[in-house]
Design brief:
Keywords: Membrane, Transmembrane, Transmembrane helix. The chain is mainly alpha-helical and about 60 residues long. The protein is built from 1 helix and no strands.
Length: about 60
């Protein structure tokens, strides 16, 4: 008599936990990919003996 409501409740909780776990992992992957796109790669700057970047114009 109480078996089927208990099975239904446990099944609901298991499926809810599965959906939360899947959403968490895909959200983390999305955030990593978005952060990687947001930070552009900066070229290395070569400096002269005086510490100025190469190609800098004297003012």
């Amino acid at each position: 008599m109480v078996l089927w409501p208990a099975v239904t409740l446990v099944g609901f909780l298991v499926l809810t936990a599965l959906v939360i776990a899947m959403g968490t992992s895909s959200t983390a992957r999305y955030e990593r990919e978005r952060a990687a796109r947001a930070v552009p790669a900066r070229p290395a700057t070569t400096r002269t003996a005086t510490g100025e970047p190469v190609g800098a114009r004297a003012a």
